[in-house]
TrEMBL record:
Subcellular location: Cell membrane
One Pfam assignment: MFS_1
GO cellular component: plasma membrane
Membrane topology note: Multi-pass membrane protein
InterPro entries documented for this protein: MFS, MFS_dom, MFS_trans_sf, MFS_Transporters, Sugar_transporter_CS
SUPFAM superfamilies in the record: MFS general substrate transporter
Keyword field contains Cytoplasm: no
Molecular function (Gene Ontology), one example: transmembrane transporter activity
Domain Major facilitator superfamily (MFS) profile: 26-416
Lineage summary: Bacteria, Pseudomonadati, Pseudomonadota, Alphaproteobacteria, Hyphomicrobiales
Name the UniProt record assigns to this protein: MFS transporter
Transmembrane feature ranges: 26-42, 62-81, 93-111, 117-138, 150-173, 185-203, 304-322, 328-347, 368-384, 390-412
Species: Bradyrhizobium betae
Keyword Transport: yes
Length: 417
């Protein structure tokens, strides 16, 4: 696809590792990932309300099904994205992600039934599994071992700041127009076109950077996918601790995506203030990762992960127990801060342990477990919400988040980047 326009790839003599040495491509990938994040932000405020208001769905579990479809498809796409990146090249996988994501806003705009929304989210999950995975992996490839936390922090900053901004904009547009669609989703069409165009025309592959870094490590025998999966998921205590924490982190994010708009609406908030609350959480999450990512390079990974999980748990208990926009705004800020402490640090922790020759696969396996949490969280919260009420669903997920932090405190050993 338009390979003739792709800038020439660097030769071995031109390849350097480091943020300063690769700042142009690094900055371009930050911009690309901002558009990737914007595609998720399209759905944070408006889509759950579409389920309850436009499609008249009474079951919280049914409404949450669109997040489950997103999480499952993204998780399994993550699982293969690293293998494809190693065998096919990072850039090609990134472009594939954008091509698959292009129809998503159109499907939501034209959806005559809830099944179309669920189907759109299958495509969105596949798109995110390819595109977001590649922007993370390519930045880690570019900077080398000294600045992984910084690289991941900046990548996730761009993505989740755009999630928050788009969540706010879609809520504001819906409030101004008096309709939940189609106007809020025009943003997504622009994001997809710009992201695809930049990826095709300007992004360069980073395979040479991987080879350069691997040359500075002791040679290892080729490792198969099954071995990498077992090592990442269960056998290595640091990798296991990171995987379960990632799953629970996104479990509570999936719950908030599905439940928070319904919870706040049931307590009298309109679309615009719900959009503000839905924007603050990923907005704080995004911005603070510019601090927590590099901080983990200096202070280590474990403490930030443990305390970040516990801070998230406290924030969820606040949302469930307290009432009023001010309390919920404060809790959303704390939830964003706790997630910012955890999110880039977990990716950096995986990169600390995994050898460059199988790092992409290890990261993809971690992201499989992490993003499976979207489906688990949405469905679990939906079932609890239908049976006991939305406040109990939020508090139950808060308890799981606290226990996940305990597991990290016990199982993870500090490893310097």
């Amino acid at each position: 696809m338009a390979e003739a326009k792709t800038p020439p790839q660097p030769t071995d003599s031109a390849v350097r590792l480091g943020l300063r040495e690769n700042w142009r491509q690094f900055a371009l990938l930050i911009l690309v990932n901002a558009f990737v994040g914007g595609m998720v932000g399209l759905e944070r405020t408006v889509v759950p309300l579409l389920g309850s208001e436009d499609f008249k769905l009474a079951s919280t579990t049914v409404i949450a099904s669109f997040i489950a479809s997103f999480g499952i498809s993204k998780a399994f796409t993550n699982l293969v994205s690293g293998q494809l990146a190693d065998s096919w090249g990072r850039k090609r996988v990134l472009i594939l992600g954008w091509v698959i994501g292009l129809p998503v806003p159109f499907l939501i705009i034209w959806a005559p039934s809830w099944s179309w929304i669920v189907s759109a989210n299958v495509l969105l999950g596949i798109s995110q599994g390819f595109a977001w995975s590649m922007t993370v992996i390519m930045k880690i490839d570019l900077v080398g071992p000294k600045s992984r936390g910084l690289a991941v922090g900046l990548n996730e900053f761009a993505g989740y700041l755009m999630v928050g901004l788009t969540a706010f904009l879609t809520g504001w547009i819906a409030s101004e127009t008096g309709a939940l669609r189609p106007e809020p989703f025009y943003l997504g069409i622009g994001y997809a076109v710009l992201g695809l165009g930049l990826s095709v025309l300007l992004v360069r592959d980073t395979s040479e950077h991987v080879r350069l870094e691997a040359g500075n490590h002791p040679k290892v025998d080729p490792v198969g996918f099954k071995e990498v999966f077992m090592r990442t998921s269960f056998r290595d205590r640091n990798l296991f601790a990171a995987c379960q924490a990632g799953l629970v982190n996104n479990l509570n994010d999936g719950m908030s995506w599905a439940i928070f708009p319904l919870f706040f609406a049931a307590r009298g908030l309109g679309v615009e203030p719900i959009g503000v609350l839905k924007a603050v959480y990923p907005g704080v999450w995004g911005v603070m990762q510019t601090i927590t990512g590099p901080l983990s390079d200096r202070l280590g990974r474990k403490g930030l992960i443990v305390w970040g999980m516990w801070l998230q748990a406290a924030a969820l208990f606040m949302v469930a127990a307290l009432n009023g926009f001010g309390w919920w705004l404060g809790a959303s800020m704390l939830l964003g801060l706790g997630t910012a402490m955890v999110y880039p640090t977990l990716l950096a922790a995986i990169s600390d342990v995994a050898h460059p020759t199988w790092r992409a696969r290890s990261l993809s396996i971690y992201r499989f477990w992490r993003d499976l949490g979207y489906a688990v969280g949405a469905l679990l919260a939906g079932l609890i919400g239908d049976a006991f009420g939305l406040a109990w669903a939020i508090a139950g997920v808060g308890l799981l988040t606290f226990l996940s932090g305990v597991i990290v405190a016990v199982a993870m050993q500090e490893a310097k980047a």
